[in-house]
């Protein structure tokens, strides 16, 4: 390359576009020779942005580079590099087709590129339709690049009222049309193109990553962390800076690029029922309870998991035996792989309701089950609706040779009437049958049940959704949550070790998640902290009393030891043998080198001082010489 030739970088739109061209390039008749007539195989670059790739296209791919640019100035710059350039613009009209065919002439078009200029057209489908006509005639492909307006930088700024045009980049001031993945796909489909390969350019921070200290953009803020985790799970393109796609011609699919602003007709509730076809008696009871609902604005999605032929027939018969109005609202889906979480994701994905509830085939909803959820949803649209389930123990029995169930004892109201977010951070006290989820988190934010979990998947999903939507609670009892004392259940299918492992995994996920605290939780946190401080104060006072007691006890023991030592001194000095040896101590007293020793002298002595006195007395001449007297006594 010459000093004036732009450098082709690999990790940018040009490097990615060239990589696609190279990967899908067909053999040509030979290398292009700029000094002679143009080679047969032509690469057409619409717009001059792709000129960065020109030398590689000609030198490595053996194609003759031809550019269609918007100004004579741009054309002159390309010609100065020895490249073929023509002036003209595509406007999405019939004249575009004539322009392209005239430019190519009788040469064979091998490939076409449009780098970052489709956004500059007010009629992108018309422009692409003209390009497609050339692609069909020459059986060639198009590499297309457009900026991604759904990069998280753009979205977060827009959420706070910022929309900043720049001279170039994602919000180039020359752009008429902005593309997301979905509307770029629609544009291609309407224009008669389809993509078959991609090499998108990823940028964690785009040119729109300013102002750097905006709380939504600065990577160290809690707001940024919360928004990033939501954006990341809701779609794949949060860090895509530019879509770089390889396209081929297909049949045009006339349609509109706009979307309807009105929601389709939906039932209020979709009821997802998992079944393995082994609890037909309880499944029939669940259907009977659904048939008796006060509010019948619901559909039922039955998901059969690993059903054998016998189980499938039993499930189909149980569905068929429902009243016609209910039977017509039931759909049966089947899945033959995965763990017990797979049917939930399949059932939720197939649900059309505004809310989605889980009704396993062994639980029983009361007549107010749907209506209570509906009432909560009206009061707090978009929040999780939670009522109360009572627990009842059941056992497996045989009834006339067929499997059945029998209750063991009365229902117990052991789950709280309100949802406590803080308590749910440690353990789950909300059975699946007692909640209905808004469809938005699953269908719009793409929050899925975690298929790596074997158990407690409902608690994990509940907490991830509750942290975003909040929970509307009712103290009304609306269902029975059956607890199997005998027979197969999730508790028997998985070891306690598996339950503990999944519990720990969920706690770990909660610890790693940035959360919104629901309304009212701040007060709960203050009360909890106040209670904890009060308990800590009580514990401290108790410990201080214990320490004082131990200290007092220790002092008493020390004084007792001192008195015993003082008693020993007294015993020695008052002993017969010590008095008998007084004559031995007389010369020392006469010479005033000694003094009369009395027990009263040591009344205030410390324990250590008394130890030394006892040692001196017991090793003195008076005491050792009279030891024979003590042995005789």
Automatic annotation (TrEMBL):
Domain called Glycosyltransferase 2-like: residue spans: 280-385
Name of the protein this chain belongs to: Glycosyltransferase family 2 protein
Species, as recorded: Herbiconiux oxytropis
């Amino acid at each position: 390359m010459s000093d004036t030739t732009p450098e082709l970088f690999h990790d940018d739109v040009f490097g990615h576009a060239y990589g696609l061209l190279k990967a899908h390039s067909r053999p040509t008749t030979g290398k292009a020779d700029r000094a002679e007539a143009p080679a047969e195989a032509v690469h057409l670059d619409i717009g001059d942005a792709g000129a960065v790739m020109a030398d590689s296209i000609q030198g490595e791919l053996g194609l003759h580079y031809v550019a269609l640019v918007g100004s004579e100035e741009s054309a002159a710059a390309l010609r100065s590099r020895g490249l073929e350039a023509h002036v003209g613009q595509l406007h999405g009209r019939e004249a575009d087709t004539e322009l392209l065919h005239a430019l190519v002439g009788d040469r064979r078009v091998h490939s076409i590129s449009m780098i970052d200029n489709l956004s500059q057209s007010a009629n992108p489908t018309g422009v692409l339709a003209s390009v497609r006509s050339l692609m069909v005639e020459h059986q060639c492909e198009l590499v297309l690049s457009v900026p991604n307006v759904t990069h998280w930088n753009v979205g977060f700024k827009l959420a706070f009222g910022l929309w900043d045009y720049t001279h170039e980049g994602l919000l180039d001031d020359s752009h008429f049309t902005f593309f997301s993945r979905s509307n770029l796909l629609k544009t291609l489909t309407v224009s008669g193109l389809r993509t078959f390969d991609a090499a998108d350019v990823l940028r964690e921070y785009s040119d729109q990553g300013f102002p750097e200290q905006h709380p939504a953009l600065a990577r160290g803020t809690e707001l940024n962390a919360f928004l990033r985790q939501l954006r990341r799970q809701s779609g794949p393109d949060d860090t895509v800076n530019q879509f770089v796609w390889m396209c081929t011609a297909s049949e045009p699919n006339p349609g509109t690029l706009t979307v309807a602003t009105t929601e389709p007709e939906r039932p209020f509730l979709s009821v997802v029922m998992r079944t393995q076809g082994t609890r037909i008696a309880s499944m029939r009871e669940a259907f009977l309870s659904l048939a008796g609902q006060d509010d019948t604005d619901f559909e039922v999605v039955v998901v059969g998991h690993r059903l054998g032929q016998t189980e499938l027939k039993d499930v189909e018969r149980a569905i068929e035996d429902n009243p016609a109005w209910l039977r017509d609202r039931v759909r049966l889906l089947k899945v033959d792989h995965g763990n017990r979480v797979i049917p939930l994701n399949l059932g939720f994905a197939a649900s059309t309701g505004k809310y989605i509830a889980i009704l396993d085939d062994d639980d029983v909803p009361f007549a107010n089950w749907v209506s209570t959820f509906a009432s909560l949803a009206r009061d707090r649209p978009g929040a999780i609706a939670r009522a109360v389930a009572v627990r009842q123990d059941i056992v497996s029995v045989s009834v006339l040779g067929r499997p059945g169930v029998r209750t063991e004892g009365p229902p117990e109201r052991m789950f709280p009437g309100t949802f406590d977010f803080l308590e749910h951070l440690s353990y789950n006290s909300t059975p699946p049958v007692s909640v209905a989820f808004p469809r938005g988190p699953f269908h719009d934010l793409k929050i899925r049940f975690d298929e790596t979990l074997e158990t407690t998947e409902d608690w994990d999903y509940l907490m991830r959704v509750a942290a975003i939507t909040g929970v509307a609670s009712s103290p009304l009892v609306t269902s029975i949550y059956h607890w199997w004392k005998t027979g197969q259940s999730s508790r028997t299918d998985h070891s306690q070790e598996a339950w503990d492992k999944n519990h720990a995994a969920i706690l770990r996920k909660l610890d790693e998640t940035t959360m919104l605290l629901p309304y009212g939780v701040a007060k709960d946190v203050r009360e909890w902290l106040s209670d904890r401080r009060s308990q800590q104060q009580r514990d401290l006072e108790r410990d201080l009393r214990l320490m004082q007691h131990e200290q007092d006890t220790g002092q008493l023991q020390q004084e007792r030891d001192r008195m015993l030592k003082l008693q020993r001194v007294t015993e020695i000095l008052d002993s017969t043998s010590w008095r008998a040896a007084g004559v031995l101590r007389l010369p020392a007293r006469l010479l005033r080198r000694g003094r009369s020793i009395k027990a009263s002298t040591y009344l205030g002595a410390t324990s250590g001082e008394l130890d030394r006195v006892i040692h001196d007395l017991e090793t003195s001449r008076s005491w050792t010489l009279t030891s024979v007297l003590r042995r005789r006594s």
